[in-house]
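BUG-563 | component: ligand-complex export | severity: low

The export step for flavin-adenine dinucleotide jobs runs without errors, but we want the raw record kept on the ticket for reference. Input record follows.
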Amino acid sequence: MSSTTSISPAVLIVGAGPVGSVLALTLLKNGIPVRIIDKAGPQIGQKGAGIQPRSLEMHHFLGTLPDFLSVAQSIPICTIYKIPGGTEILKTFELNPHEEPKPDTPYINSMVLGQYRQQSILHRHLKKYGCEVEFHTELRSFEQSDDHVLANIVKKSPDGAEIPEAMKVPYLVGTDGAHSTIRRALGLTFLGDTRDDVSSVIGDIEIKSGLNHETWHFWGEGSTKMVFLIPAEVDKNIFTMMVTGKELDHAKTASGRDELVKTITFVTERNDIEFGDLIWMSHYRPNIRMVNKFGEGRVFVAGDAAHVHSPAGGQGTNSGVQDSFNLGWKLALILKGLSPSSLLNTYTEERLPVIAAMLGKTMDLLNRGRDKPAADESKWKRGTEFKQLGVNYRGSSTLVDETTDLTKELIRSDSYSLASDGVIHAGDRAPQAPDLEDLRANRAATSLFDIFGPDHHTVLIFSSVRSEGEEITSKLSGYSKGLFKTVLILPALSESELIASVKQSSGFDLVLRDGCGHAYKVYPTLPGPCTVIVVRPDGVVGAIVRGIDGLLQYVNGVFVALA
Ligand SMILES: Cc1cc2nc3c(=O)[nH]c(=O)nc-3n(C[C@H](O)[C@H](O)[C@H](O)COP(=O)(O)OP(=O)(O)OC[C@H]3O[C@@H](n4cnc5c(N)ncnc54)[C@H](O)[C@@H]3O)c2cc1C
C-alpha cells in the first residue's frame, strides 16, 4: 500500500489516554488544531481512578469539572475483614479523611472515577472542537528537522488492512504510555528500578452478589497474602481487584478468570461472593523510572511516557495531566508566534524536579506500608502533599518574584510541597478567591477560578490607585486581544470611593470588589501603591511584582518583543 502525505494540524498527539486527551483539549481551547491518535480502541478499566484536588482545579479551568463531578465519588470508608472467616469487620478507616473546603481551596478532597470514564468525558469535550480521537492508528516512526517533524502513522481498518500516512507537523507529543515508542526513539534515558518484590495481580471483575458497594473491602496482610476489592463509582457491579503477597503464585493467579477467583476465595475465605465476567487483568510489577528530560527539539513526552512509579498514593494520571497542562499553553503561544521556542525549555525545567520528588514520595509510601499489619492505620496514611496543591515551580527561569527577602534555598525548598512560610510565591499554585463582586455587571458574584483559563494570562492588580493600573493596561494593550485578562481588585471601600474607582478604571477587562477580603487575604500585597500578580494559563503564579517594571520583566521573558 502506498503512503499518502498530508499537511496536517500543528500538533500530533500520540496516545489518547488521560494525558494525551488533556493536552489535546488545552491546545484546542487555545485555538491550536491537533490530531490525536491511539493504536488501540477506547481503553477499558478503572486503573488511575484517584483524582487529586489539583487535577479537579485543572478540570475547573478546562470546563470539564461539572461532567467529572456528576459521576465521580468521594473516597469511601475502607473495611478490613477478620481472617479466619472473612466476614467479620476487623477495622474500618478513612484513607483520605474528609476536609472542609476553604475559600482558597474549594476542592480539597480527593475523588475517584475510573480512568476509562475520565477519558470518555475528555473525548466528548474534544468533539465539541471538532476533534475525534483516531483509534486503531499507530505511530510507527518519525524524523525531525529544524522546522518540522515527519511522522509515519498507520491506520488499521476493521478488515485488518493497514493504511499508512506520512504526516508533517510542527510538533509531536508522545503521551504513549510506559512503553513509549517516542521516548525510545528520542533516546531519552528511563533509569530506575523494577520492583519484582512487590508484584501483584490487578484488574477489574464483575461481582454479581455478596459484597456491598458502599465500602472498599480488604482481606489479609500485604506481607503474606492480601486481596482488595473496590467497587466502581458508576458501574456498581464492577470491582477493581488487587491480589498481592509473597505466599501467592501471581503468575498462576493471572493465568485466567477461574484461577483468579480461586485465589480470591482462598484469601478472603468467602464462598458467598458471586463473580461474573473478568473485564481485564494483568500481572503487574511497579517500575519506578523517569526520563532525563521531557523532550528533544520538536518532540516531547508527557505522562507515563516520561515517568512510571507505584500506584500507591494515586499520583500517575494526576502528574501526567499536569505535565500536559504545563506544556499545552507554552506550545500554543509558540505556534502562534507569540513566544520564543526557548519557552519550551521550561517544560523540563519545571516538571523534572516535581516528578523526581513524586517518585521519591510514592516509593517511600510503597516501602513504608509494605510490611505493616493491615490494621495499622499508619500503613494507609497519605500526607496531604499527595493532593498536589503544594506542587510548585519556584525558582523557574521565567518567573519574577519581588516579594521576597527569603533565601533562594528556602524558596526552592521542595517542588512538591510549599515552604512553611505560608506566603504565596511565583511558581506556586494560584489560590481561589470567591465572593468577588463584578462592579461592571451589577455586582454579580464571581471568583478568580472563573476568570483564570488555559488560553490567557490573568493580570491581577491589587490597588485602589488608578494611575498604576492604567499604565499596565496601556502597555499590555499592544498585545493581541485576549492574551491578557486585566483585573483590578479593589479592597472593601466605602460606597463613594467605590463609585469613583469604577468610573476611573475603564482600561481593565474586569473591576472587582473584594468585599469579603478573600483575595487580599490569600495573595501577598507588597509595600507601595499596587501589587501586580500574573497568573499563567496553567493556574500557576508567574509573577508577583510592584508595578510595570516587574510586569515587563515577566512579559519579556515569556513573550517575543512587540514589533
Ligand atoms: C492498578 C493501578 C492503579 C492506578 N491508580 C492510579 C490512581 O489512583 N491515580 C493516578 O493518578 N494514577 C493511577 N495509576 C496510574 C495511571 O493509570 C497512569 O499513570 C495513567 O494511565 C497514565 O496515563 P497516560 O495517558 O500517560 O498513558 P496511558 O493511559 O497508558 O495511555 C497511553 C496510550 O497510548 C497508546 N499508544 C501507545 N503507543 C502508541 C503508538 N505507537 N501509537 C499510537 N498510540 C499508542 C496506548 O494504546 C494508550 O491508549 C494507576 C495505575 C495502575 C496500574
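Assignee comment: Attached the raw record above. The pocket of flavin-adenine dinucleotide is lined by residues 14-20, 37-40, 43, 47-50, 115, 138-139, 175-177, 181, 202, 284, 303-304, 311, 314-318, 320 (CB under 6 Å).
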